[in-house]
Design brief:
The radius of gyration is 17 Å and the shape is globular. The protein has a single domain, classed as NAD(P)-binding Rossmann-like Domain (Rossmann fold, 3-Layer(aba) Sandwich). By secondary structure, the protein is α/β, with parallel strands linked by helices. It has a 7-stranded parallel beta sheet with strand order 3-2-1-4-5-6-7, with helices on both faces. Helix content is 46%, strand content 16%. Bound molecules: NADPH dihydro-nicotinamide-adenine-dinucleotide phosphate. The site of NADPH dihydro-nicotinamide-adenine-dinucleotide phosphate has 31 residues, from helix 1 and helix 4. Homotetramer (in vitro). Heterotetramer with HSD17B8; contains two molecules each of HSD17B8 and CBR4. Does not form homotetramers when HSD17B8 is coexpressed, only heterotetramers (in vitro). GO terms for molecular function: 3-oxoacyl-[acyl-carrier-protein] reductase (NADPH) activity; NADPH binding; NADPH dehydrogenase (quinone) activity; quinone binding.
Length: 237
């Protein structure tokens, strides 16, 4: 199978689990992150024909360059996963404007830039599938996460609009919205306390999210959907 899957934020956490699952299914995977060494190590763990690329999704020339390199070394991108994200919890009144801008650049603008870069190829090949990683807080909001929630809510609006815009070109765009998942991003949280609100009684694992992402990537008749993967947390908040 020669289809290519680009995973932005694929070097660690949720993106890494998606990359592993897609590689196991026989797709060629591009692992993309700012830290090229870590991305290379992850690509190496997958074995086979998978490659790593260094890129900051917040920078348009980086993103365009990465798409050019991916096409040169792996071929045209069929699947795109946007898992690159950062989270700096703070109350809005204590958040510096520069922090607002830099979070939105990575969490929202970054996905817009990668989707835009992917469109050229996907329109040309009349097909493609994109999954953007949102968050349950983008749907529900969370105190101390106004900027993060706004970015993730924006991603839902963006993804649904793009899904409408490109459906006739057989390009699908969906969102997976996770709850609390065990990754570097959540390791500072007080799990014992937080998991009391989760009906399934635990934080999720990256593989729990990866299965949902791969399901949407491969589902030919689903577009504009937001799939929540949160152990039932949305039922309680
Ligand atoms: P991690 O911190 O474990 O991994 C983040 C990944 O994104 C890394 O590969 C990191 O690599 C990359 N990354 C971060 N900033 C950039 C950037 N500017 N350009 C390119 N790559 C970047 O996070 P998670 O796996 O937990 O999160 C993945 C996604 O899921 C994020 O969008 C996050 O918001 C979302 N999410 C996570 C939840 C959780 O509970 N963990 C819950 C809900 C949503 P590098 O640092 O080298 O660039």
């Amino acid at each position: 199978m020669n289809k290519v899957c680009a995973v932005f934020g694929g070097s660690r956490g949720i993106g890494k689990a998606v990359a592993q699952l897609m590689a196991r299914k026989g797709y060629r995977v591009a692992i993309i992150a700012r830290n090229l060494e870590v991305a290379k190590a992850t690509a190496g763990e997958l074995g086979g024909d998978h490659l790593a690329f260094g890129c900051d999704v917040a920078k348009e020339h980086d993103v365009q360059n990465t798409f050019r390199e991916m096409e040169k070394h792996l071929g045209q991108v069929n699947f795109l996963v946007n898992a690159a994200g950062v989270n700096r919890d703070s109350l809005l009144v204590r958040t510096e404007s520069e922090d607002i801008v830099s979070q939105l650049h990575t969490n929202l603008l970054g996905s817009m830039l990668t989707c835009k870069a992917a469109m050229r190829t996907m329109i040309q090949q009349q097909g493609g599938s994109i999954v953007n990683i949102g968050s349950i807080v983008g749907l529900k909001g969370n105190s101390g996460q106004t900027v993060y929630s706004a970015g993730k809510a924006g991603l839902v609006g963006f993804s649904r609009a793009l899904a409408k815009e490109v459906a006739r070109k057989k390009i699908r765009v969906n969102v997976v919205a996770p709850g609390f998942i065990h990754t570097d991003m959540t390791k500072h949280l007080k799990e014992e306390h937080l998991k009391q609100n989760i009906p399934l009684g635990r934080f999720g694992e990256t593989i729990d999210v990866a299965h949902a992402v791969v399901f949407l990537l491969e589902s030919p008749y689903i577009t504009g959907h937001v799939l929540v993967v949160d152990g039932g947390l949305q039922l309680t908040i």
